[in-house]
């Protein structure tokens, strides 16, 4: 077994031992996240429903500040999704089923994120928000799947 290069005895631990502790994940953490993430997702529906009831019933335009916020949010959400998915491409810890669900939900989230901006221009703004919100929920499930599987 290769040893880490160190002359200090307190750091003279096998490299594989360090790696094992660096990625140690307990069942309690997974269980807590499996409860916390859906709970927060469900509780976020309350303000989303309030926004739906008070939302604009007219389409937006490129002159609205909300349009440019949508462009900015969409760009950052896509970046976040790419940074989340990139490590999953060849991760050997993911089962076939988990890998499929992650990719299905990631593609759905990316589709919602991309559609969010043009929908703002042609439909009532609340529909654009709803599409964006749905994409964010899907991305949260992707993150949860990845955390639980690794």
From TrEMBL:
Top-level taxon: Eukaryota
Transmembrane segments: 32-52, 67-86, 98-119, 125-148
Keywords: Membrane, Transmembrane, Transmembrane helix
Protein name per Swiss-Prot or TrEMBL: Uncharacterized protein
Provenance organism: Periconia macrospinosa
Organism lineage string: Eukaryota, Fungi, Dikarya, Ascomycota, Pezizomycotina
């Amino acid at each position: 077994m290769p040893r880490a290069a160190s002359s200090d005895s307190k750091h003279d631990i096998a490299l594989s031992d360090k790696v094992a502790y660096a990625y140690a994940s307990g069942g309690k953490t997974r269980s807590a996240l499996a409860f916390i993430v859906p709970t927060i997702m469900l509780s976020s529906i309350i303000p989303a429903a309030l926004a739906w009831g008070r939302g604009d019933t007219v389409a937006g335009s490129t002159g609205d500040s909300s349009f440019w916020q949508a462009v900015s949010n969409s760009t950052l959400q896509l970046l976040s999704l790419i940074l989340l998915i990139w490590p999953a491409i060849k991760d050997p810890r993911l089962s076939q089923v988990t890998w499929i669900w992650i990719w299905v939900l990631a593609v759905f989230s990316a589709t919602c994120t991309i559609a969010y901006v043009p929908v703002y221009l042609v439909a009532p703004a609340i529909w654009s928000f709803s599409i964006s919100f749905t994409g964010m929920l899907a991305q949260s499930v992707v993150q949860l799947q990845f955390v639980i599987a690794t």
